[in-house]
Amino acid sequence: MSKQLAQQFSAYGLPVFPVTTKKRPAVKGWQHPLAPDQYQWPSNKIGVPVPVGCFVVDLDLYKGVTRHAVEQLLGCALPWDEALIQRTANGGEHYAFSHNGDELMQGSDLFKLAGFDSRRAGAGFIVTGEGYTPTKPGGAGALAYPSTLPQLPPAAALKLKKPERQAEKPTKPLTEQEVENMKSALASIDPACGREDWWRLLAAARHLTAHDPEQGLEIFNAWSAGEYSDDQEPPANYMSIDDVEHQWFHTGSEGGIAGGTLYHKAMEHGWRPPKGFDVSAVFGQGAAAVDVYADTIDDINAHALDPKEQPRLIDTIVNFPGSPSQLAALRGLMLKLLKEDNQLTKQLREMLDGGRAPTKATTDATSVAELPAVVTLDQVPERQISRATGAHGSNAAIMLQEVFGGRLATFEGVLRWWTGIEWQKAEEDTLLRLTSAALSPDQDKMPNVKGTVQALALKAPRREAAAADRRVYFQNGVLDLDSQMIYPHHHDNNNTGALSVSYNPNAQLGEWAAHMDRVFGGLHDGDDRVALLQEIVGWLLITDDLNVQKCVAFDGATRAGKGVIFDALSAIVGAGKCGFANFANLANGKTQSLFIHHDVVFDHEGKPPPRQETKEAIGFMNKVASNEPVSIQLLNVQTPWTGRLNSKFLFACNGIPVMVDDSGASTTRFLVLRFDRSFAGVEDKGIGGRMRQCLEGVAAWGIVGLQRLLANGGRFTEPASSIQATDDMKDGNQPLREFIAEYCTIGKGQRCHSKDLWSAYRIYVADANIKASSRHAFLRSLRATLLGQPVEEKKSLRIDTAVSSGFEGLGVRGGAPANVVAGAFGKQKETT
Predict the structure, then answer these.
(1) Per DSSP, what are the bridge partners of residue 59?
(2) pTM listed for this prediction
């Protein structure tokens, strides 16, 4: 099957190559495949190199990525449906675009968005065949005709442009012998080794080739791709050149792992250095001769698990006549073998430690305290700590001072790093990398590294997140609204986020002003709508909700410019402070949890929740708006999270979701901004890029709106269209409002029996041609609708001579409704 499919694609003019069942290249040189007849085809799938003029986006939907999330990240809309060429067996989707511009990025989880992968011409490939479902004739064969594919929008191409990296000129080129030594040593090691060993080898190779990094990258990538192995096939854990290059140039040559690690690992696998091998250059001054060192490695591998030989081996290691680097490597090998066989006892460890003179690790890395005032966690240099052990707590305590310089703390159990601007959430992969370097060379096994990272959260000082206030945290300082002064950032502010822009009151509005004119210009209440939006923008810039107790709804026509505004606002608020939820899933604990760590939550397409979840969704939304305590059931956690969310919720919709709530509480929680004009068919696809040029101006514009909002006591401007939209929503959410207005009177002295109300209601539903509810449901909804009115329900109420349940303060228009109702429903009743 695969050979037939390969021949079919070859007929299209597409090169193809065999892949394994795990979708890895089954041949070397897949970038330039041979004719299909010259290959064996081991699976029912084929690989297709991405041709020139094409770019492929691979969305792994099972990881939670969405089209909208990608558009939000790239800053523009993409022609998804037109570009979709096939679906994968795991629920992924491949989109093919035409692109002939700059070289674009290739990799997995681009911009740390899980499930957003890409493949570019000359470096990537896609798989098709068994398990893949074409979404258009030819499926992946569409890659043969790049001109027929939808073009990748320029804004997306700009965002995805591969960062230009100036090739580093060697300050001391590698000699032919050094190149051959590295290649032969790496050839003895399986590139399918574990991730930890792979990274250590990369760091060692980076150290060895610090003066000729480009040559070093070429050698290491060839090994990683399997070119030095006997079958010359890529390993199962094959990484693309882009991924290897990224790791290579983000791993410092001074990161704590010596170049000797590579040669030591090779010796463990039987490699022996050639004659003339410069031991001192690799293992440091005082290094023992290669044959002595290699023989000791062989001795340890052969006898480490023999209890009778262990004292002798330990004595050999402790008294080894070599460099500290060799001694540490031999000790690490012995510890590893003992631990893997469950023979490592406290006594054996103490014996190995006993002969090792404690030496303070040296490094050229800059002390954290000497770093610039503003530095993110991933910019902190890797450095060894003075004393690394197997005790997680001890390691963590030392790292807090020697690596993090007192700038790491926990907020409600979450580790955060003081960047100089905000307390940034500490990403686990960064902590693992820094900890691995800190515990090297012989305490950096993954269990110890992970245990130390967990201990950091226990050892780090506790801080309380800043209470909601009216200060605005810009990049260039903290704006005090009262004094209009900008103050320096300070860690004791305890702010866990900051806006992505600086405060510049003179910044221009540019495209934003033009967009306001297109959307609202010339409308009867257009100026009020702009004023309301300005106040909303300002309100989002602070953590204090000003007791507004509202959720914001951008309601109106499709393609009306709502999404453009949302994109700009979310960009200003910043990725660390804003999240994205789905109105329809507000009753879901996973969706609710998004509000815990985000100051602002957006929904680009507000839709009502399922009917059975409406009550819970309404309750949660009301508590978000009023900032009341909530209880949220988190995934994989038995005890629910409880507290105040202090989060603001904005959603865009084409008609505000109808959620029947007879009390009207949910209706009063909405702040509605109407969008009447649609730009469907005439969308400006470049507006996102232009809008990003004026974000500082929009933020400064929002500050003016915030000041007006504060001056008005937290009361927003109310355009006439917003008032009408709220009234319409009340009618939709409270179906008995119209009945009460037309058939009832409210006031002192008014009285009626429940049966008279029920009769009047039956007339109402017959006249309106709507479905009547049961009497019990009607009275329950009536009670909720009348909340707050001067009406009191009585179990026993006398009206004239009749005694029955009824209401004080509420009357029925029209006298004797029971008689009229009987006629309206076809039952004649005599009157007296």
Answers:
(1) 93, 116
(2) 0.50
The span from the CA of 399 to the CA of 391, in Å, is 12
Tell me the domain boundaries of the chain.
2-160, 176-354, 374-459, 511-730, 735-824
The answer to whether 194 touches 222, Cβ cutoff 8 Å, is no
Cis, bond preceding 461 (omega within 30 deg of 0): no
Per DSSP, the chain holds a count of helices (H) and strands (E) of 30, 25
Neighbour order of strands in the sheet with 45-49: 17-18, 45-49, 125-129
CATH code of domain 735-824: 1.10.10.10
Report which of 159, 136, 145 is spatially closest to residue 54, judged by C-alpha positions: 145
- DSSP per-residue letters across 133-161: EESSTTGGGGGG-GGGSPBPPHHHHHHHB
574 contacts: CB under 8 Å, gap ≥ 6:
497, 498, 499, 500
The mean pLDDT value for 464-493 works out to 89
CB 519 within 8 A of CB 677: yes
Q: Is domain 511-730 in CATH 3.40.30, yes or no? A: no
Structure tokens at 221: 């990538």
Question: Hey, which residues does 806 pair with through a beta bridge?
Answer: 753, 794
* Bridge pairing between strands 116-120 and 92-98: unpaired
What's 427's DSSP letter? -
- What are the DSSP E strand ranges found in 217-271? none
Span 420-476, pLDDT tens digits:
999 999 999 999 999 999 999 889 899 999 999 999 999 999 998 888 888 999 999
The structure tokens listed for 535 are 């106040």
- CA 309 to chain CA centroid, nearest Å: 53
For residue 85, give both structure tokens: 């060429």
d(CA 434, CA 383): 7
Find the length of the chain: 832
Beta bridge partners of 648: 600
Residue 33 and residue 46 in contact, taking contact as beta carbons nearer than 8 Å: no
Nearest alpha-carbon partner for 261 in 135, 442, 407, 433? 442
Cβ burial, residue 726 (10 Å; 0-12/13-18/19+): middle
Give the Cα separation of 326 and 297 in Å (integer).
10
How far apart CA 677 and CA 205 sit, in angstroms, is 60
> How far apart are alpha carbons 332 and 312 in whole angstroms?
16
Report the distance separating Cα 413 and Cα 396, nearest Å: 16
Residue 256: its pLDDT value, please? Answer: 56
Place of tokens 């004026």: 694
